[in-house]
Specification:
- It is a single chain.
- The chain is an alpha+beta fold.
- It folds into two domains: 37 residues; 72 residues, no CATH class.
- It contains three helices and five strands.
- Strands 1-2-5 form a three-stranded antiparallel sheet.
- A hairpin with a 3-residue loop joins strand 1 and strand 2.
- It is extended.
- The two termini are 37 Å apart.
- 3% of the residues are buried.
Length: 134
């Protein structure tokens, strides 16, 4: 008898961003509009920094690394024509250790600060684009 394939979509629950914002607003006693503005601003800033070539580290939670992929010429197998694929940036994301441990270990306790704020001595972030092809 063939082994059944695991279908994650059958086992995944979901929650949307607005529901999370409502929970945060209720817990902290803030207005929903304030919380959604903060969430949207944080997400936009994260995306802008990654687009501009910065590695964004949310310590112990998640890291986004921009990867510069070189352009190349692709020859189509369908019509034999050459197409120029431009240089582009893709993003590698890696969950942090605190995130992975908490999610994978059912007995683990949520750390007080899963996303630690670490102040580096440099006053401005450094731009880092990894040119390796992932």
């Amino acid at each position: 008898m063939p082994k059944a394939k695991y279908k994650p979509e059958n086992n995944i629950k979901s929650i949307d961003q607005l529901s999370v914002a409502k929970l945060v607003a209720t817990h902290l006693g803030l207005s929903l509009t304030t919380v959604t503005e903060v969430i949207e601003m944080e997400q936009k800033l994260t995306m802008e920094f990654v687009r501009d070539g910065y590695k964004v580290i949310k310590k112990n939670y998640i890291t986004f690394t921009p990867i510069k992929k070189p352009g190349y010429i692709m020859k189509s197998k369908l019509n034999g024509e050459n197409y120029e694929i431009p240089e582009r940036i893709t993003v590698k994301s890696k969950p942090g250790l605190g995130f992975r441990v908490f999610v994978s270990d059912q007995r683990s306790k949520m750390p007080n600060k899963i996303c630690r704020f670490v102040d580096k001595k440099s006053s401005s972030p450094e731009q880092v684009i990894d040119s390796t092809v992932a």
